[in-house]
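Support case: user asked for a sample of complex input and structure output to validate their parser. Sending the pair below.
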Amino acid sequence: MNNNNSEFEPKIVAFVCNWCTYAGADLTGTSRLKYATNVKIVRFPCTGRIDFMLLLKAFAQGADGVIVSGCHPNDCHYTSGNFHARRRWITFRGLLDFMGIDVSRIQYSWVSAAEGAKWADIVNTTVANIRELGPYTEYQKVADYLDKEDYNG
Amino acid sequence: MDKLREKAAALLADGTVTMVLGYEEGTNKPRPLFCHTAEQASKLVYSSQCINNLAVYLTKKEIMGAGKVAIIATIPTLRSILQLSVENQLNEDNLVVITVTDKDEVKQFANFAEIEAYIADFQLKLDGKEQEIITKLEGMSREERFKFWMEEMSHCFKCYACRAACPLCYCTKCIVEENRPQWINPWAAPLANMEWQINRAMHMAGRCTGCGACGDACPVGIPIHLLTRKMMEDLAPEFGFTPGQPSKNGNALSTWKADDKENFIR
């Protein structure tokens, strides 16, 4: 699976909140900090809006890793969206692990609008981590089941 | 059993209730019985074989509109009734809850608080066989667990019996019927099956009372009740709940604490 690591470019989808991490990622750019280009950022009003199904859909559509990021606790624009999100991720993570889905491919983080450097670091370390793990073919094979008739488990 | 029949017949005869939900003799095991007259009450049975969770009917519109009903509840059913009550799905005035105690006595509950006190004596336990599967899964590597679940899920043909059997799956529009967007593909393919079960388990997070009705209902025997069950047991210490007892301060995902513990968010 990992034979072509040198050629493998991970696809990463980042689900971020509008008020902190998106602004933080913006700051990374305006601060001229360089970071890996493997990440595609999707902007949401709040981490509380990030449905767990979106993460599963990202993997099914070929993402090798996912970043979920929002405001630090107590900094939520809507007061408690990130607290609700945190509970959801605690719950979701346990379930995914019990079902054998690779939770190490999901990076959760709190990045405020002032933490441009932290955002660059999160993206770079996640990309390095996913590069190590290789493509998430295990999940994609399941997702492509109807396209491939030779699927044998 | 005679006492139970007498009680049900009396409730129906004096017009206290219009219907008694109970069990009658079935082919292999007792099956649900909807008793409308005192004569029908003679068909009622009660034993440890009664495994259908009758609480599932309480949120059906046919029964909610039927006036006052009585339900003959087993311990798991009582747990479900309590959870439904904290979710404001039941009208205390329109429900008579009856159970048969260990000493074969018929007990009628005056209110939900009394059910709660009664239930507290019964510890929620996993069957040996189920505990065995959980222990086996916990000992596996992640890849093996994934393989195990994909193998199990490959049998699923999306009959949604798990949804129909669960007393707490009472949404009038389920996410699988949602098609704008189509969150979960309706066909029975491994990914769609898995996504459905993940959704079911997430929607049950902190609400499941561990009755096992979903697993019993599965016609191909996928141990899906383990998903909700495992979550129930994992979440209880995390968020300070007692497994099998409803949390009055809101469900796991509808509430939060500023000091919820996690160690995976950077």
